[in-house]
Amino acid sequence: MHSIVKIFIGSLLFFFIDTGIVCGQLQILLSDPEAVMNPVNYPHFAYFPDGHISVLPDEDGYIMFWAEFESHRSIGTSQFVEDQTSLEPANAVFGRRGNFDTYDNGGSWLMSVFRIEGDSLIGFFHAEDHWYPHTSNNIAWKSLGVTYSGDEGKTWSEGNQIITSPKEKPETPEWGGSGDCCVIWDHINNRWICYYQEHNIYMAVSEDPKGVPGSWKKYYNGAFEEPGLGGQQTKVPGLIPGANPSVHWNTYLEKWVMVWHGWSPAQIYLSVSEDAINWETPQSIIVSTISGRAWYPTIIGITDVEAGQIAKIYYADIASDFSFRNFETRTITFIDEQNNEPAIARIDAPADGSTINDIGFIIKTSADNLKAGVNEVEFYVNDILVGTDDTYPFELEWIAEESGEYKIQTFIIDNNNDRIASDIVNITLNYTVGIKKLSRNSDLAWITTVVENTLTVNMQAGNKQLSIYDLLSNKVFSKELVNEHTEIDVSGLSPGLYFLLIKNDRSFQTLKFIKR
Question: Which of 28, 40, 136, 299 has minimal Cβ neighbours within 10 Å of its Cβ?
Fold first, then answer.
């Protein structure tokens, strides 16, 4: 279970409670930080994140764009970084840098990506000019641009600038220009809004669906009237100086939420807005745990531009001398104290009445209108507790012993010890793949049954999926296997009994082993 930090935002009412100072109606609950690993072997991971993280749903999963001086594209099973599975393609898909005389000679990387329709995407990018001819310094003059893809982000057109500083680039290198952006589609006013920094946070809008150069107008003296290319600008009302904003529409609050990092102190701040223009008083929500800088935040819920009551915030905790950075995440929960709607729990997957042609399924659950943070989620199949989860997203992969009808229900226990029940979902489970029976096979694999640090698996030839589960059906390891002989490091598992599931497209086998 995670400890909770409470932060309160607003300006309506002040009073004291045991856990802190309440200011207004909005509470922000944050879990402890967790390290984020490199699931796709991203080559610039030591410098990641270096800007906004963009993710969008795809037909079979999700697409994510990883940014440093160039952008890579990954595919994954969910919208979260931890569930990305591979870079596709393996090489960078956008950006370059080198000793040439252009606005992007120091690199250009995608900050916000959206689907136009079908396989067509629009990408908004940050670019850096390191002065030409390039010397040993990497001081950057920044600008923003737009690019397009016709193959779901695997290749991109040559970008064009859309927003540049009102200041001319000086002859002597110095940090400046307009950059470090995120872009949202304002569904209320049918326009793009780009939030960017030039020491302060600024914004510009475009009503053109493709955000073409020349269509952007900067916010200046209360109106969007200055040209994006070189026009004057006024900082966003209500915010403190900083950079790297990340903005999403929050379906629970029915407001826009922005996170960004300040300069001094170098902390992550949060604010909310009803119109995406005027923002409430910012509140610091995350500070560095290594006496450095908490920078580059992105909130991902449904995507990076839409979230509900519970989401994840990703950010970099950077050493004070910039010698290293830790990529971290926390669960973030929004609680509106004026929301009197009853708390509800729902099962997002599997769907009620569905038939699943496999030996198991993933149960996914979520909540709305919670009055406190989530302590734990219980998962029941046919009224039997089969597992728990205390980390967002709340889900459990369950393996059945046989085909049949199954009744699923979840219970969310919050930090007030309230128990919120979901509706019951009924599903039918068939061990089939297409029209072929997925049968048990006792000869797929052979394993050592008592292990200490290494589990040895010998298998029949061919591709197989291997998963390890604990006694509560929590998946603790998963990997695609090709080799007939494999050794798996299980030294990090707690002592006890574990179940091993191996399956291919025709059959499956379950085995048990004891970890000493």
Answer: 136
How far is residue 460's CA from residue 458's CA, in Å, rounded to a whole number? 7
Helix runs in 165-272, H state only: none
Burial class (CB in 10 A: 0-12, 13-18, 19+), 203: buried
* End-to-end CA, the chain: 25
Do 358 and 397 sit in the same domain of this protein?
Answer: yes
Token pair listed for 491: 């030294």
pLDDT in the model for residue 431: 65
CA–CA dist 422, 435 (Å, integer) = 33
- Which DSSP category does 153 fall into? T
Q: Are residues 371 and 421 in the same domain?
A: yes
Q: Residue 179 is which amino acid? A: G
> What is the DSSP secondary structure assignment for residue 10, as one 8-state letter?
-
CATH at 351: 2.60.40.10
**pLDDT per position as a tens digit, 469-514:** 887 777 888 888 777 788 889 998 988 888 888 887 767 788 888 8
Strands 242-250 and 255-262: antiparallel
Shared-domain flag, residues 424 and 461: no
Q: Say if strands 425-429 and 355-356 run parallel, antiparallel, or are unpaired.
A: parallel
Cβ atoms of 236 and 293 closer than 8 Å: no
The strand pair at 179-186 and 176-177 is best described as unpaired
> Within its chain, how far is the Cα of 348 from the centroid?
18
Q: Which residues pair with 312 in a beta bridge?
A: 300, 331
> Please, what's the largest Cα pairwise distance for the chain?
74
Task: Of 68, 81, 72, give the one whose Cα is nearest residue 34.
Answer: 81
Residue bearing tokens 């689907």: 115
CB 367 within 8 A of CB 376: no
Domain containing 471 — which CATH number?
2.60.40.3080
Do the Cβ atoms of 292 and 266 come closer than 8 Å? yes
Q: For position 17, what pLDDT does the model report?
A: 30
79-89: string of b/e by CB count within 10 Å (b at 16+)?
bbbeebeebbe
Distance of CA 258 to the CA centre of its chain: 15
Six-digit token pair at 150?
């016709």
Range of the domain at 495: 438-515
Q: Which of 232, 220, 236 is nearest to 276 (CA)?
A: 236
Please identify, among 399, 430, 461, the residue that sits at the C-terminal boundary of a domain: 430
Torsion of CA 457, 461, 462, 464, to 10 degrees: -20
Measure the CA–CA gap between 408 and 124, rounded to whole angstroms: 42
pTM: 0.84
Rg (CA), the chain: 25
Q: What pLDDT sits at residue 191?
A: 98
